[in-house]
């Protein structure tokens, strides 16, 4: 009897750590998103580009209009993705979250998530080397695919993101600082990398 029970006890104690490792590994694998196929990549690049272009056109059009109507302090709230009903309907229609982020933000709600910061740093390094910045598509978890594309500074942008007292009027900047006391998004020149579009799609 004693002889028969021994191997059992021995097996169980050996098995428990082994099983925990197997479970841990399996748990780790569940979090790993499956790599995107080339066809999927192409599909999300096209979708993302379309949405980013439409959003950028709507935002800059509305901004230029608002500056014309009421000057820079009046126009400032329009440089926001939440200020445009079009972006809201584009997001809903595409089951996507459209936002903009940057290494130097004006509104802290636009701070980059870790995956966004990684791409922003990559864009910054490429832009310093004078390389062309391309859209990026990647699976960020099991259910979501992210699209990123660079945002460059146009002549219109330096009125609010330019150099204080040079390309940006000092009094206008005072007004902006009142709403955004922790602002970091100034000092840019035309052509600089300002940030990026970040569009997160539900994976189909
Ligand atoms: C009239 C002033 C004004 C103009 C012109 C303007 N911006 Fe902004 N920008 C702002 C304000 C104010 C915010 C913060 C918006 C918010 O609360 O989300 C902002 C935010 C941003 C952000 C989000 C990241 C952050 O810093 O919070 C990006 C990216 C951006 N602007 C890019 C641009 C680009 C590109 C242009 C030119 C096409 C431009 N802006 C023109 C005032 C302006």
Please provide a written account of the structure.
The chain is of the alpha+beta class. The protein has one domain (36-202). It has helices at residues 2-31, 38-75, 85-93, 114-128, 158-161, 170-179; strands spanning 96-101, 136-139, 144-152, 193-202. A four-stranded antiparallel β-sheet has the order 1-4-3-2, with helices on both faces. Strand 2 and strand 3 (144-152) form a beta hairpin. The model is unreliable at 1-5 and 21-25 (pLDDT under 50). Bound molecules: heme C. Residues 60, 63, 67, 72, 75-76, 79-80, 100, 102, 105-107, 110, 151, 153-154, 156-157, 159-161, 176, 185, 194-195 line the site of heme C.
Output the keywords.
4-stranded antiparallel beta sheet; 4 strands; 204 residues; 52% helix; alpha+beta; disordered N terminus
In short, what is this structure?
The protein has 204 residues and is of the alpha+beta class. Helices cover 52% and strands 14% of the residues. It has helices at 2-31, 38-75, 85-93, 114-128, 158-161, 170-179; strands spanning 96-101, 136-139, 144-152, 193-202.
Give the topology.
Elements: H1 2-31, H2 38-75, H3 85-93, E1 96-101, H4 114-128, E2 136-139, E3 144-152, H5 158-161, H6 170-179, E4 193-202
Antiparallel strand pairs: 1-4, 2-3, 3-4
The structure holds heme C.
The site of heme C (HEC) has 26 residues, from helix 2, helix 5 and strand 4.
């Amino acid at each position: 009897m004693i002889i028969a029970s021994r191997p059992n006890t021995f097996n169980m104690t050996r098995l428990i750590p082994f099983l925990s490792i197997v479970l841990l590994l399996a748990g780790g694998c569940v979090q790993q998103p499956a790599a995107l196929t080339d066809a999927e990549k192409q599909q999300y690049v096209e979708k993302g580009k379309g949405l980013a272009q439409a959003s950028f056109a709507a935002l800059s059009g509305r901004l230029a209009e608002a500056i014309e109507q009421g000057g820079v302090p009046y126009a400032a709230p329009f440089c926001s993705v939440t200020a445009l009903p079009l972006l809201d309907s584009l997001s809903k229609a595409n089951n996507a979250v459209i936002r903009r982020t940057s290494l130097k933000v004006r509104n802290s709600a636009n701070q980059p998530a870790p995956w966004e910061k990684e791409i922003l740093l990559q864009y910054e390094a490429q832009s310093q080397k004078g390389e062309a910045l391309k859209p990026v598509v990647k699976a960020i978890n099991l259910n979501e695919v992210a699209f990123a594309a660079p945002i460059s500074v146009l002549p219109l942008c330096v009125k609010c993101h330019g150099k204080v007292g040079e390309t940006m009027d000092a009094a206008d900047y005072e007004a902006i600082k009142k709403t955004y006391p922790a602002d970091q998004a100034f000092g840019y020149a035309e052509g600089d990398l300002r940030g990026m579009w970040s569009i997160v799609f539900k994976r189909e």
